[in-house]
Amino acid sequence: MARYRKIDIRMWSDDAFRRLTKPQPNGQTLFTFFLTGPFTTMIPGVFSAGEAAMAERLGWPLKDFREALAEVLAEGKHAGRLKALAKMDREAHFIFIKNAIRYNVPESKNVIKSWKIVWDELPECALKREAYQYLKGFLEDKSEGYGVAFRESCAKPSVMTYGNQEQEQEQEQEQEQEYSSRQLSAPTDLVTKKYEEREAESTWFVGVVTAWNTIPGVKEQALGATIRRSDLYRRVLAYRKQHPGNEWWDALFARVRASDFLCGRTRASFHASLWWVLGPKNLKKIEIGEYDNWSGGAMPAASPYERCVE
C-alpha cells in the first residue's frame, strides 16, 4: 500500500528554506516543483505558469530551466528515452500532470465543487480540454456523485483561443457552410449553432482578459462564474465585431503597457481597468495619445488624472 506525506506549498516561500543551498537545474527538482510549487492549484495536476516565471522562482537560468523541462516533458533528445511525466501548452502556459489526481483524490463532492472558480480562470487550450476529459473519466469511475459534481462545477473548455483568429474564422466558415447545406433540417440545428457561437465568444473573451492581465500595473480582471452576464463581457464582444483580428487589440494593449499613468507608475497611482479602458471616451483618448508619456515641451493643460471622466 502506498504511503503519502502532506507538503505545505508555502515551503517554497519560507525564508529558512530559501536560504538552503539551491539545486542545480534538473528534472527531478522541477517535477517536484510541478507537484508542490506555489503555482499549483486545488485541482491536482492542473495549473498555469510560464517558463520564465518558473525559472525565476527556482533561481535557474532560462536556458537550463528549459533543458530540465525537456526531461520532464520527454521532448527533444529525451523523446523515447524518458517517460513524459507532464504535458505543457507553452502558448497558453497550461500544465497538466496526468497521474496527480490518482494520488490526490478529492475527499468529497464539496471539494470538487470548490474547483469551479479555479477551473474557470485557467487559460483555454487543447490541453485543458484533454485534462477535462481525463479528470471527468477518473472521477466518474470513482463514483457517480463525483462525476456529477465535476460536470456541474467545471465547464467543458473550447479549443479555440485568442491569438488564433485564422483558425477560428475557418471553423466558423465551415460551420456556416454545413449549417446552410442542412437548411435547418431540425430545430436542434439552431440550438447547436447558437451554442457553438457562444462558446467561441466565451473563449475569445477569456483570451482577451488573459492578455490584459499580463500588463504590469493595470487592475487585474477576474474571471468568475457570472462573467458571461457582465457588462464587460458585452463590451468586449462589441469591440470584437468592430475589430475581429488581433492587430487592434495588440496595439491597444501595447499602448496601455507603455503608459506610465495607466499602469500606476505616476504619483497619481491610477491603475486602469479593462472596463475603464474600453469606455468610449477613455478609449478615444488612448487612441489619440492623451495618456501617452509626456516627453517634454509645454505642460499639458490638464493632467491625465484630471482627464479621467468615466
How do the strands line up in the largest sheet? 1-3-2
Query: What is the domain tally?
Result: 2
State the distance separating the first and last CA atoms. Answer: 62 Å
Question: What sort of overall outline do the alpha carbons produce when their principal axes are compared?
Answer: globular
Rg value: 23 Å
Q: Biggest β-sheet, characterized?
A: 3 strands, antiparallel
Helicity level: 40-55%
> Hey, roughly how much beta strand do the residues contain?
under 5%
* Secondary structure category: mainly alpha
Report the average pLDDT across residues: 82
| Number of beta strands | 3
Q: What series of H and E elements makes up the topology? A: HHEHHEEHHHHHHHHHHH
The tally of helices reads 15
Instruction: Give the uncertain stretches in residue-range form.
Output: 178-187, 297-310
Features:
single chain, 310 residues, mainly alpha, 3-stranded antiparallel β-sheet, 15 helices, 50% helix, disordered C terminus
